[in-house]
Amino acid sequence: MGSPMKIRASVKEGVTEIKVLMGHEMETGQRKDANGAVIPAWFINEVTAKLDGKTVMQAQWGPSISKNPYLAFKVKGGKAGDKVSVTWVDNKGDTRTDEATVT
Amino acid sequence: MTPRLLERRQVLTFLGTLAAAGFVLPRMAFANWDKAAFDARTMDEALKALGAGTPGQSGDVQIVASDIAENGAVVPVQAISKLPNTERIAILVDKNPSMLAASFDLMPDTIPEVTARIKMGQTSNVVVLVKADGKFYAASKEIKVTLGGCGG
Known about the structure:
Shape of chain B: globular
Order of helices and strands of chain B: HHHEEEEEEEEE
Low-confidence stretches of chain B: 18-30
Oligomer: heterodimer
Helix content of chain A: under 10%
Helix content of chain B: 10-25%
Radius of gyration of chain B: 18 Å
Order of helices and strands of chain A: EEEEEEE
Largest interface: A-B, 40 and 47 residues
Number of strands of chain A: 7
Number of strands of chain B: 9
Structural class of chain A: mainly beta
Strand content of chain B: 35-45%
Low-confidence stretches of chain A: none
Distance between the termini of chain B: 24 Å
Radius of gyration of chain A: 15 Å
Largest sheet of chain B: 6 strands, mixed
Structural class of chain B: alpha+beta
Number of helices of chain A: 0
Number of helices of chain B: 3
Mean pLDDT of chain A: 96
């Protein structure tokens, strides 16, 4: 399930700006633990964002994205009250979706 | 340390690597995730896997990031395309083990400006690759890293 995302979305002069902070370890698979064993890779690899039910972005990520990933982007259109939903899937098949309302 | 111990450790490490690979790989088989591109170990391989070949450098592709990153674990990067019909923006880090950090597919209403935070193991060129109107363009910027982001 992961921890809840923080999503902020605001519309200004016809452009909706969406900012997302996710909670995820984003383990690279390059690191070793104290015993020298490789810590398996564990990272978000797909992200989908929707505005008012319409997909506006689909991202593919690798392990080079920082822990607790941040994502910001802008979309033409949108209005106060529209729903923004963001879904991520990680390489272990875990997934989480969170919603916010455009202000 | 005796040679025998060393040998045992190497065997264990090897088994560990196999187990890790076996554990992770089947789960990576997602519909969209471009495994070949993310597994690429050289910039040429990564660009080829993304279908970009040798992209032309373009002033319409911009990278907004500071010249020096104090903490390589968290390097904010904004990738901007001024090109019409930008369909895709990818961020690559030349000297990372996995150089493709992210690839964003944009819809027509999405403004081609994305911000993300990436890890950088060491000072490296960061490349932003843009696909617009079916063609590829790129820009690169060197970011100096004072503390690497891929260690412990």
